[in-house]
Amino acid sequence: MRHHFGSKEALREACDAYAKERMLQIGAELTQGRELKNLDPLALHPVAFPLQLYIVRSMMDGSPTATAFFLEGVDAVEEWTTTFGINPKDRRGYAAALAAIKLSVFVFRDQVSKALGQDITTPEGYNRIGQALMEVFTIPLLPQDNVDTQEK
């Protein structure tokens, strides 16, 4: 290990860089043409899930590469909201919250698995939580008049 990387930190940096690059490749493949019709979470699981777990752990450990990747994800959500005409009052706050919510499933994977009675590290469990997140992101939690009242 030291022969190839020189130190444990250099190895970690190389692993972080690989995980980041591979996730970017997967993201690019999924978003070609801006349609997710052909998205197959069960086929995606064996490739993406280990990388997602690694990146989240690296973020929690304070890795500069993983933190930069998170911030790039926040930037991407901001751009996405602009592209698709989504206009939150605080675009950056919205983007940061959305990115953090998505990643929290991996941080709390043991607790989420217990709550579901299904291991989310399996392809089926991964698909189930993915579908649930899709609903969280598409079903309004509050009527607009409640939101307006809270903002005053």
Which key phrases capture this entry?
152 residues; mainly alpha; 76% helix; TetR family transcriptional regulator; 8 helices
Question: Could you walk me through the main structural features you see in this protein, from its secondary elements to its overall organization?
Answer:
It comes from Kribbella sp. HUAS MG21. This is TetR family transcriptional regulator. The protein starts with a helix and ends with a helix. It has one domain. Helices cover 76% and strands 0% of the residues. With 152 residues, it is mainly alpha-helical. The mean pLDDT is 85.
Record the SSE blueprint.
Elements: H1 2-5, H2 8-31, H3 41-60, H4 64-83, H5 91-107, H6 109-116, H7 123-138, H8 144-150
Helix pairs in contact: 2-3, 3-4, 3-7, 4-5
How confident is the prediction overall: mean pLDDT? Answer: 85
Give the overall silhouette: globular
Give a quick account of the main beta sheet: strands, pairing sense, barrel closure: none
What count of helical segments does DSSP give?
8
Q: Please report the total strand number as a whole number.
A: 0
Question: Which secondary-structure class do the elements indicate?
Answer: mainly alpha
What is the strand content?
under 5%
Give the ordered list of helices and strands: HHHHHHHH
Organism: Kribbella sp. HUAS MG21
Protein name: TetR family transcriptional regulator
